[in-house]
């Protein structure tokens, strides 16, 4: 994955009032931490940052006063109503370093006719190189019959990734729609009064 460069400004004002002023200027308060160094408080460009973070596990090159620093977003706080980013925690990384990230589970294919699939784990936790972080993993359910399970340990991970999620966890379960039996019983009970009436 190609890295995305964001120009950052050092941040010297703190507190809710300062954060509001920063956001009014269409910027986002953020903090860089990691590798045992003191946290570095910065301000990021709002629009560019929101576009960058549409990607999962994107590698960022944060430019502070002309000095670039590779980082990944570890926590993104959003306004629940407006869905705008209010603050970003950035973890400093370096080439070759391995870090822990969550990757999305994407289901592909169709299970056997008359069955449905339930996704029990929406994400898997993996360890991967910071400069080659996977965005997602594909799990095929093509042709699987009712009762089939795909465990975390069965999922084929992208090259260079190591599974940290318990391999015995069920990721996908194929089953029959639960409502069918209940619908049949409801239909039978609905017919009973009419049948009783006709018999009377």
TrEMBL record:
InterPro entries: Rbsml_bL25/Gln-tRNA_synth_N, Ribosomal_bL25/Gln-tRNA_synth, Ribosomal_bL25_b-dom, Ribosomal_bL25_C, Ribosomal_bL25_long, Ribosomal_L25_dom, Ribosomal_uL5_bac-type. It comes from the Bacteria. The keyword Transmembrane helix does not apply. GO terms for cellular component: ribosome. Keywords: Ribonucleoprotein, Ribosomal protein, RNA-binding, rRNA-binding. Residues 187-200 have a biased composition (Low complexity). Residues 6-90 form the Large ribosomal subunit protein bL25 L25 domain. Residues 98-178 form the Large ribosomal subunit protein bL25 beta domain. Residues 176-200 are annotated as: Disordered. Belongs to the bacterial ribosomal protein bL25 family. CTC subfamily. Part of the 50S ribosomal subunit; part of the 5S rRNA/L5/L18/L25 subcomplex. Contacts the 5S rRNA. Binds to the 5S rRNA independently of L5 and L18. This is one of the proteins that binds to the 5S RNA in the ribosome where it forms part of the central protuberance. NCBIfam families: bL25_bact_ctc, PRK05618.2-1. This is Large ribosomal subunit protein bL25. It comes from Promicromonospora vindobonensis. The lineage of its organism: Bacteria, Bacillati, Actinomycetota, Actinomycetes, Micrococcales. The gene is rplY.
């Amino acid at each position: 994955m190609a890295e995305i460069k964001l120009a950052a400004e050092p941040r010297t004002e703190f507190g809710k009032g300062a954060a509001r002023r920063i956001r009014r200027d269409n910027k986002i308060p953020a903090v860089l931490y990691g590798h045992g160094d003191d946290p570095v408080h910065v301000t990021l460009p709002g629009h560019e940052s929101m576009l960058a973070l549409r990607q999962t596990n994107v590698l960022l090159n944060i430019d502070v006063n002309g000095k670039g620093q590779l980082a990944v977003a570890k926590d993104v706080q959003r306004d629940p109503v407006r869905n705008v980013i209010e603050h970003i925690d950035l973890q400093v990384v370096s080439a070759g370093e391995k870090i822990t990230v969550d990757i999305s589970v994407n289901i592909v294919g169709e299970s056997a006719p008359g069955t449905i699939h339930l996704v029990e784990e929406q994400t898997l936790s993996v360890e991967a190189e910071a400069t080659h972080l996977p965005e997602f993993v594909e799990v095929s359910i093509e042709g699987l019959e009712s009762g089939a399970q795909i465990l975390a340990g069965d999922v084929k991970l992208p090259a260079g990734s190591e599974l940290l999620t318990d391999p015995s966890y069920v990721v996908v379960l194929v089953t029959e729609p639960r409502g069918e039996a209940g619908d049949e019983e409801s239909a039978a009970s609905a017919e009973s009064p009419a049948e009783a009436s006709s018999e009377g």
